[in-house]
Design a protein that fits this description.
Layout: E1 6-15, E2 18-28, E3 31-36, H1 43-50, E4 58-63, H2 71-77, E5 78-81, H3 93-103, H4 108-121, H5 137-149, E6 155-158, H6 167-182, E7 186-190, H7 194-200, E8 203-208, E9 211-216, H8 218-223, E10 230-236, H9 239-249, E11 252-258, E12 263-268, H10 271-283, E13 288-293, H11 298-306
Parallel strand pairs: 3-7, 3-8, 5-6, 6-7
Antiparallel strand pairs: 1-2, 1-4, 8-9, 10-12, 10-13, 11-12
Helix pairs in contact: 3-4, 3-5, 4-5
């Protein structure tokens, strides 16, 4: 097994009679990898196995050559930021990051120096002395990230790390992920939003029902669904009239009027031509309020790849 990869070999994990993950085979190199899946898909199980928080019932895992059954060695090269609040009610942001470093055996002086550096990197120095319980959701996300990166790990495992971030901080955090990946680290993050994954990651792993259903470059994964029609939700003043116009002028496979929502759902295999017709109709006086892609999310990709609702 390569010391430069995260390797899963025929890994399965059960919780009693409930399947966590099933016969997972993966080799993950340096860079940004997105692990995506709806609730119950096995995403959190995969991350917890990678970090040694749980052990597989079958198969073998190596993280840069280290077995998760050796948690002390694994912790030194791995940073894990869960999506759940883990700070004690009494802890300030600074205390929270320092406490994680002390667990690694750092001296108090070094732990404090590393904590300040990590908090500065995520833009939280001004709030460092405030209690974490007073933080916004986005600030709590960032303080967990600071704790994960403070010991300069080679592997970062981040569970929904962009939830709750405002656009500016979100862009700064993505830039930080890219910088860390460019330094040769393995950055694994989960996300439910396909266009977000597309803009961030080098590679994607799609999970459903505990199994890997697709993996590779996001463009390659999208090739698997290229022949399926794209879906658009169009809100407008008169959905029935617009539906008739689309059937007449646009390359649509199906149009469904959603009367209660004041909208219609259109399926097309030619996104560009469909958008051009909508623009022409709007310029001609048809009242179109919004046009939103209805398949730019992981759940729609699952529907395409496994032939049903995720």
């Amino acid at each position: 097994m390569s010391a430069q990869e995260i390797v899963f070999e025929n890994v399965s994990k059960f919780y009693g009679d409930v399947l966590g993950v099933n016969r997972v085979d993966l080799r993950i190199g340096p860079g940004l990898t997105a692990i995506v899946g709806p609730n119950g898909s096995g995403k959190s199980t995969l991350m917890n196995l990678m970090c040694g928080l749980i052990q597989p019932d079958r198969g073998e895992i190596r993280v840069l050559g280290i077995s998760p059954r050796d948690p002390e060695r694994l912790m030194r090269i791995t940073g894990y930021a869960t999506q759940f609040d883990a700070a004690p009610r009494w802890a300030t942001g600074f205390d929270f990051v320092v406490s994680g470093l002390l667990l690694f055996g750092y001296s108090t002086a070094l732990a404090e120096r590393l904590a300040w550096a990590a908090l500065e990197r995520v833009g939280l120095t001004e709030a460092a002395r405030r209690k974490v319980t007073s933080y916004s959701k986005g600030m709590r996300q960032r303080v967990r990230l600071a704790q994960a990166i403070a010991h300069d790990p080679q592997v970062l495992v981040l569970d929904e790390p962009l939830n709750g971030l405002d656009p500016v901080v979100r862009a700064e955090t993505i830039a930080l992920f890219r910088q860390l990946a460019a330094e040769g680290r393995h950055i694994l993050l989960s996300s439910h939003v396909l266009h977000e994954v597309d803009s961030i990651s080098d590679r994607v792993v799609l999970l459903a029902n505990g199994s890997v259903i697709a993996e590779g470059n996001i463009r390659g994964v999208r090739e698997e669904i290229r022949e399926r029609p794209s879906q658009f939700l169009v809100r407008c003043a008169d959905p029935a009239r617009l539906a008739a116009l689309l059937f007449e002028r646009a390359p649509v496979a199906e149009v469904r009027v959603l009367e209660e929502e004041g909208a219609l759902l259109a399926l097309t295999r030619d996104r560009r031509a469909f958008s051009r017709v909508l623009t022409e109709l709007a310029a001609g006086g048809v009242a179109i309020e919004t046009v939103v892609p209805a398949d730019e999310n992981v759940h729609a990709v699952y529907e395409y790849l496994i032939g049903g609702s995720a």
